[in-house]
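Good morning,

Both structures are done.
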Amino acid sequence: MSDQLRSSLPYLSAPMAGVRRVAGWMLDVVIPAQCLGCDSIVDTPGALCASCWSTIRFIDHPYCDACGVPFDFDVGANALCPSCVRDRPEYERGRSAVVYDDGSRGLILGLKYGDRTDTVRAFARWLARAGNEVLADADVLVPVPLHWTRLFKRRYNQAALIAHALGKLSGVEVAPDLLVRSRRTPPLGNLGASQRLTTMRNVIAMHPRRRRELGNCRVVLIDDVHTTGSTLRSCSRTLLKAGAGAVDVLTVARTVHSVN
C-alpha cells in the first residue's frame, strides 16, 4: 500500500532527509494517499475517509478520573468507576483515545500484527488530543515492553513506535528501553482478569542499566490497548518501586463495558 511505503520513509537516516522529501513528493504524485481503514483515496496520508472515521468512537468526558473508562452519563467531577472504587490502580490517570471495538480493532491489530506502521502517526495525534493534560505534566514517555522473543518475531514494539511519534508531537522525552519483560508470558487475550494479574506478577523489571534514571519524575506509560489493565498496573508498580514520582497511562484504545 502506498501509505505503508510512505511510513517507512521517516526511518531513513538524517543525511537522507532530502531524498526522503523527494521520495515523499513523488509518491504523492504517482500514488494518491489512501484511507488507513479501507484504502479509498483521501486528501492526506495517514488519514481516514469519512466513512471509516464515522465508525471510530472517540473517548471524551465524562470518564473515570482514575482509569479513564467512559461513563454513559455525567456523575460529577473526579468520579471513579466501580472497579477503581474497589481497587484503584497504581497509576494516577489512565486515558485512552478511542473505544476498542469493530471500528478501531482492524487498525490496532494491523499495527500489532500486520506491519501497518502507517497508522502510528494517526494514533499519536489521537493520543496527543486525548492525553493533553497528562502530557502537560509528563517528564518521560515509556512504552510497555515486549519480551525479546516477541520483539524478534514482530521486528518492532508497536508501543515504542507510538511513544516515539507522540514524543515528537509533544516534545516529551522517550525512554524506549527503561522497562523490560523478564520472562515470556502466554497471550493475555485468552485469560480472565484475575489470571492476567497472576501471570503478570514479577514479569516487568527495570532495565539493569537504567535503574537510577527515574529521579522522582512523572512517567507516562504508552501502549496500544487497555483491556483489564494488568500489564499497565504491573509496569506502574515497577516504576514506582524504582523511584518514579508518579505514573500516568496513555493507550490508543481501551475495551469498554457500561459502568453506569
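Second structure follows.
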Amino acid sequence: MKAGIWEGGGTISCGEVEQPQPGAGELLVEIAYCGVCGTDLHILDGKFDVGPPPQVLGHEASGVVVAGGPETDPELIGRAVGLNPIGPCGVCVWCRAGHPTHCRNPYYSASAYAEYALYRPQQLFPLPAGVSLPGAALLEPWATALRAAEAARLRAGENVLVIGGGSLGLLVASAARVLGAATVTVSEPRRRNRELALARGATAAVDSAEADLAALAAATGELRGFDVVFEVAGATAALEQAPALLRRGGRLVVLGVFGAEVTVPVAPTQLTDRELTILGSFGGGGSFGRAASLLSAVDAASLVTAVEPLAGIAELFGRIRAGEEIKGMIQPGRGESVGAQQA
C-alpha cells in the first residue's frame, strides 16, 4: 500500500509499505483523511523523538473500519470514525488514576499517512451527526485543545489570551469560547490566521510582531491581566513573557513544543507573590468523548486549507513549513471508496 514515510532528517515522501493485517483485538481502518500536525514537522526537525526512521507518520485521522481480527465486534465493520492515536490499556496505575495520557502500556496508532492503519476499539469514535470525515480527522487536535482548556479550570466570564494562531491555537480559542470565556484574544503574526480566528469567534486577534501584549493585559478587566494564557506557538520569548501577562492568581498553560535545549527562567517570587499556576498539557487524554460530541459545534473542518494525495505529501509539508497553509491534510488514494462506505 502507499504511505507517507519519514526517511530521516527532514525528508518525508510517498512510498510503498506492506499493508497491515489485524491481529487479536485489532481493527483495520481505511484512512480517509490525516491532518498534518506541527508535531510531525518537529519530528522531521529532530525536536520530537519518536524513535529512528524510517517510519510511517500521521496521527490526526479519520476513516472507515473495514476488517477486524479475532476478539473484535463485527458490528464495527463499515463504521465511519474519528480516531485517537493512543489506546490506553485501562489497567495500569496511570489509567486507574485517571491519566490515560501517561499510560504505561499504550497501543500506539501513529501511522495514518497511509491507505490503512490498525487501531483498537477504544480508539474509535463514531462521527456525530453533521460531522464530515475531514472534520473528524481533527478530533485529535480538538481533544487536545479541549483538554488544555479544561486543565486550566477555565470558567465562564474569564478573559483568555492564546499565543499562537496555528490550527491548534485556533482550536484552543474555540475551546475557550465553548467553556464560556468572555473574551478570547489570539496573538499571531499571520494575517490570514488572525482573520480566521475572528471568523471562528475570537473577540480580538492581534499581530504578535507589533502588539504590546503587556498593555493589552493591563487593560483587561478589573484584575488587570488575563485569567488564562495559553502558549501554543512554541516560542521561547513568548513563554518568557507569558507569566507577566496574567492577573494575580492567573493560570499559564503550555502546549507549544520546544526543543530539549530550551529553558525558561521563572522567578519563584513571581509565582508565590502573585500566586500563579503554570501547567503543561499534552494530547487529548480522557477528553476524546466530550470532544467528539462537540465537533459539530466548532466547525473544525473550516480550518482545512489544503488537501493533497499521498503523492503530494512532501510538497504539502513544504507549504505548511513556509506558513502558506493553516491546516493541511493528506487524503490517501482510496478516498472514493471511503466516501461510499460513509454514505
